[in-house]
């Protein structure tokens, strides 16, 4: 009886899946085609052929601009950022809802996801080991963009009488550009950003995560023929209930969970990667050589040097989301009276996401050589094969990491979507509650169906957020620079000093 019910459910699910995919494919292709438009160079049949995604160029150029414009605060400010996260400059009476550490872990949980595992495997499989080098370079540059957007997020946030705050690109695009005499442009960009943010939160920040985490759970429990194979809907329901239990309490509840999950999942995953690396320690020198040689002189890679460069750039830009503006929403909730403090804290985010976690994934698959295996599609399976070199059961640890990465991403993106909804509906509690309910329903839908075109569309929505956000960052570059450098002067003069503990 159970078998018949399961079979009926699978057939019904496949029918719904096909119906939605058929209806949505033209829309998804059109939107994705615009956001991920690539400049094509060379003959498609030749090895020199390459495609350069415009959105990647948009994000990397912004990261390079702010690195130079802010005089390399991404490197010079790391020590001060760590002191801020440790609470050495925190005053409990400052306005805001969460600590620097909680704001950082909430933002990291929104960016550290499956891209750090599956996306890196794809980048190395296509671009070769040299892509790792360029990924790290962009990881460092992206720290500057993140610093810029999170400084503005706090500067233009709304502080209410009950102590709650709302901030992020919607607010600094509206109010920051209005202060520069560009009120209409600011309002237009803010609404555009909020709409894209809601779409990205429901799709890439929720459905995609639920879908991939469910698939990984089913894979390690015997696949489609295993005991959980027919029960994607039930797994999705469990995810939805867990997400609902956390997000019902708002940012304080989310921050309390992320401050525990993020350090645990990051340490768990890094330990797993280190086990892979040291199990194959004799291959370490050759792997490092492949990364450096492949970065400047790749052989057999489509597009040659530029091809491997683009793969590294793309993975870093898509992973840490610097320039997208999403993290600024989480960082805006911090307790502080100096906006630039959160700019410094935020620069640690791409460092942890890209320079540390993505690099660990790349090292694991380069050292084990699993990136050369073309018998299956590059992705989580490539990383899973690397973990299997330690012990047959070791991929289970990877599955645990995937589930934690996905869950933490979902709860952070629920907050981003809720704040964007609040902005559009003037902080209406009903609208925000409606978004939470819809978010949890789409968690179940995402886990149950493959929905490839829908996910492609929602992924495009996330990176569409970068268009209004980066335009605003360029227009407010002087404001950002003034805020950061006047703060640094206060720290150096002792006006803003460490607090006594």
Distinctive features:
501 residues, two-stranded antiparallel sheet, 2% strand, 4 strands, 22 helices
Which helices and strands occur, and which strands form pairs?
Layout: H1 2-35, E1 38-41, E2 50-53, H2 54-69, H3 73-76, H4 78-85, H5 100-111, H6 118-127, H7 131-155, E3 158-159, E4 165-166, H8 169-179, H9 183-220, H10 232-247, H11 250-279, H12 284-296, H13 304-320, H14 326-331, H15 339-346, H16 348-368, H17 380-388, H18 395-424, H19 429-448, H20 452-464, H21 466-475, H22 477-493
Antiparallel strand pairs: 1-2, 3-4
Helix pairs in contact: 1-20, 2-7, 2-13, 2-21, 4-15, 5-11, 5-16, 5-18, 6-13, 6-17, 7-8, 7-12, 7-13, 7-15, 7-16, 7-22, 8-9, 8-21, 9-10, 9-18, 9-19, 9-20, 9-21, 10-18, 10-19, 11-16, 11-18, 15-22, 16-17, 18-19
Quick overview of this protein structure:
One of its GO terms (molecular function) is amino acid:sodium symporter activity. This protein is mainly alpha-helical.
Task: Describe the overall structure.
- Keywords: Cell membrane, Membrane, Symport, Transmembrane, Transmembrane helix, Transport.
- This is AGCS family alanine or glycine:cation symporter.
- The chain crosses the membrane at residues 52-70, 188-208, 228-249, 261-281, 287-310, 351-371, 391-416, 437-456, 462-480.
- InterPro entries: Na/Ala_symport.
- The protein is an all-alpha fold and 501 residues long.
- The protein has a single domain, classed as Amino acid/polyamine transporter I (Up-down Bundle), CATH 1.20.1740.10.
- Helix content is 73%, strand content 2%.
- It has a two-stranded antiparallel ribbon with strand order 1-2. The protein has a two-stranded antiparallel sheet with strand order 3-4.
- The chain is globular.
């Amino acid at each position: 009886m159970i078998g018949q019910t399961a079979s009926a459910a699978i057939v019904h699910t496949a029918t719904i899946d096909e119906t939605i995919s058929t209806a949505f494919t033209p829309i998804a292709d059109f939107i994705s085609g615009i956001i991920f438009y690539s400049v094509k160079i060379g003959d498609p049949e030749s090895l020199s052929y390459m495609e350069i995604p415009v959105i990647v160029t948009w994000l990397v150029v912004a990261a390079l601009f702010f690195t130079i414009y802010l005089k390399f605060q991404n490197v010079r400010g790391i020590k001060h950022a760590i002191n801020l996260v440790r609470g050495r400059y925190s005053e409990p009476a400052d306005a805001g809802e969460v600590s620097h550490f909680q704001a950082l872990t909430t933002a990291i949980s929104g960016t550290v996801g499956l891209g750090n595992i599956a996306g890196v495997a794809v980048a190395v499989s296509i671009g070769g080991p040299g892509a790792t080098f360029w990924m790290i370079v962009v990881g460092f540059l992206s720290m500057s963009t993140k610093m810029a957007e999170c400084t503005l997020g706090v500067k233009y946030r709304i502080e209410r009488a009950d102590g709650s705050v709302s901030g992020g690109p919607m607010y600094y695009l509206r109010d920051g550009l209005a202060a520069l005499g560009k009120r209409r442009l600011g309002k237009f960009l803010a609404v555009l950003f909020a709409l894209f943010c809601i779409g990205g939160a429901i799709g890439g920040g929720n459905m995609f995560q639920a879908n991939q985490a469910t698939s990984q759970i089913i894979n390690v429990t015997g696949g489609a023929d295993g005991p959980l194979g027919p029960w994607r809907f039930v797994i999705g329901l469990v995810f939805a209930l867990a997400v609902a239990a956390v997000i019902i309490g708002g940012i304080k509840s989310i921050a309390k969970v992320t401050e525990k999950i993020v350090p645990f999942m990051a340490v768990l995953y890094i330990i797993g990667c280190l086990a892979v690396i040291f199990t194959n320690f004799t291959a370490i020198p050759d792997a490092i050589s492949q990364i450096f040689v492949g970065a400047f002189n790749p052989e057999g890679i489509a597009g040659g040097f530029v091809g491997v460069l683009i793969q590294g750039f793309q993975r870093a830009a898509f992973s840490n989301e610097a320039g997208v503006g999403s993290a600024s929403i989480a960082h805006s909730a911090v307790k502080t009276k100096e906006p630039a403090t959160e700019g410094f804290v935020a620069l640690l985010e791409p460092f942890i996401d890209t320079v540390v976690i993505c690099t660990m994934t790349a090292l694991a698959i380069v050292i084990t050589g699993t990136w050369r295996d073309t018998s299956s599609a590059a992705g989580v399976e490539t990383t899973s094969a690397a973990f299997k070199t330690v012990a047959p059961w070791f991929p289970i640890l990877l599955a645990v990491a995937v589930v934690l990465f996905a869950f933490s991403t979902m709860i952070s993106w629920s907050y981003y979507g809720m704040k964007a909804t609040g902005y559009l509906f003037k902080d209406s509690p009903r609208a925000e509650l409606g978004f939470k309910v819809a978010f949890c329903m789409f968690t179940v839908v995402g886990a149950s169906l493959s929905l490839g075109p829908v996910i492609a569309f929602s992924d495009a929505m996330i990176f569409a957020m970068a268009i209004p956000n980066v335009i605003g960052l360029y227009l407010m570059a002087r404001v950002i620079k003034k805020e950061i450098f006047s703060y640094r002067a206060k720290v150096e003069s002792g006006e803003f000093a460490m607090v006594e503990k």
